């Protein structure tokens, strides 16, 4: 006895090979339509689910501007970091089907991004789609604000607070501040690692966010950090060592010094020394991922408390309790040299305490 094959009627949108949307809505059954998004359907078009069959609370199209820290990153890795929990295979389908766009045009999966690129990210449900942030997180984020004069918001981010959702984090600083100000357009102008504290800038709208990212792209941004390093930095030192940000170690992204990498320049200046530790100010000319941490380790003076690039044995001897890297100042200039925005925060008390108690 033969069993009848049952096809499921699915409403679809059609996207042609150039990625153009708005073609007539049709219907297809089972594998005839290509099944999953990105597969070829009738007349050479690619089939993607129509938004009308998605739940009302489904995520929407959004646009994200590439920051200086993300400059040189591949689009597939950028999306993997942005769309937490979405499989790599699905990321590739989104790119190759034309749903992901750079500055309005199609992009290849291995293409590298530049600061200021505007990325169209299609509706994709991620692990971070989990409703509003908890009240305590919103209160914590609000307590970090040091200046909220429009159009900017300057905060002193505490160590351990993620700047955005992802990597198992349901909500971060930006989601909490959006809830606090009731501003969905509020967004980050740059980023800090979760274990780095210090000054951060957010904009209340995309126009001003783009003004800020233009400063990073044009070299009109100045960023200074404070770091406690293992070892003695006896004189100012400039580290000009290219960084490869696509290296993988045990499945985890690790930045390494490599001639195949992007140029990265850090200036280290010793401020104080105590029992094998150095408090240093670090000025960076470029904003590569993990730049200060990798450069510090490269010259044999790893950041205290850095569990990725640091010295675990030396950390065990001083028990820092955190990674000792702190964004001290941020200055953005207009094209005429005038100040667009400036922020500065104080040295964390833990840094002085660590130097005073070091043995």
Number of helices: 8
Q: How would you sum up the global shape?
A: globular
CATH topology of the largest domain: Pseudouridine synthase
Alpha-carbon distance between the two ends = 83 Å
How much strand?
25-35%
> Helical proportion?
10-25%
CATH superfamily of the largest domain: Pseudouridine synthase
SSE pattern? EEEEHHEEHEEHEEHEEEEEEHHEEH
Structural class: alpha+beta
Sheet of most strands: 10 strands, mixed
| CATH architecture label of the largest domain | 2-Layer Sandwich
The low-confidence parts are 1-54
List the helices and strands and how they pair.
Layout: E1 9-15, E2 26-29, E3 46-49, E4 62-65, H1 75-82, H2 88-96, E5 101-102, E6 118-121, H3 135-143, E7 145-147, E8 152-157, H4 173-181, E9 187-188, E10 197-203, H5 206-217, E11 221-230, E12 237-240, E13 243-249, E14 252-257, E15 265-274, E16 277-284, H6 291-298, H7 312-318, E17 325-333, E18 339-344, H8 349-357
Parallel strand pairs: 10-17
Antiparallel strand pairs: 1-2, 1-3, 4-6, 5-6, 7-8, 8-10, 9-10, 11-16, 11-17, 12-15, 13-14, 15-16, 17-18
């Amino acid at each position: 006895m033969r069993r009848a094959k049952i096809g499921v009627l699915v409403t679809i949108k059609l996207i042609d090979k150039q990625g153009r949307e708005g073609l007539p809505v049709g219907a297809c059954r089972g594998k005839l339509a290509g099944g999953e998004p990105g597969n070829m359907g009738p007349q050479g078009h690619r089939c993607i689910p129509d938004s009308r069959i998605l739940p009302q609370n489904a995520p929407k199209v959004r646009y994200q501007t590439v920051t200086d820290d993300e400059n040189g990153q591949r689009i597939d890795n950028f999306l993997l970091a942005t769309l937490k929990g979405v499989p790599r295979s699905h990321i590739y389908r989104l790119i190759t089907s034309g749903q992901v766009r750079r500055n309005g045009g199609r992009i290849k999966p291995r293409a590298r991004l530049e600061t200021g690129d505007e990325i169209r990210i299609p509706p994709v449900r991620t692990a971070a789609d989990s409703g509003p942030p908890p009240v305590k997180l919103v209160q914590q984020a609000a307590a970090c604000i040091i200046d909220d004069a429009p159009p900017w918001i300057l905060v002193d981010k505490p160590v351990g607070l993620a700047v955005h959702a992802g990597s198992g984090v349901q909500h971060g600083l930006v989601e909490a501040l959006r809830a606090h100000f009731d501003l969905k357009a509020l967004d980050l102008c740059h980023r800090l690692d979760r274990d780095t504290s210090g000054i951060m800038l957010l904009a209340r709208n995309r126009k001003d966010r783009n003004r800020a990212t233009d400063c990073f792209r044009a070299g009109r941004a100045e960023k200074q950090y404070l770091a406690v390093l293992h070892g003695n930095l006896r004189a100012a030192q400039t580290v000009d060592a290219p960084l490869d940000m696509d290296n993988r170690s045990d499945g985890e992204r690790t930045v390494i010094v490599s001639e195949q990498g992007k140029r990265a320049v850090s200036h280290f200046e010793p401020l104080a020394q105590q029992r094998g530790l150095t408090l240093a100010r670090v000025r960076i000319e470029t904003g590569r991922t993990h730049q200060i941490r990798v450069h510090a380790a490269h010259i044999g003076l790893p950041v205290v408390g850095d569990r990725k690039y640091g010295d675990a044995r030396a950390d065990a001897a001083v028990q820092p309790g955190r990674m000792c890297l702190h964004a001290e100042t941020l200055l953005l200039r207009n094209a005429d040299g005038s100040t667009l925005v400036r922020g500065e925060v104080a040295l964390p008390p833990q840094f002085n305490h660590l130097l005073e108690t070091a043995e």
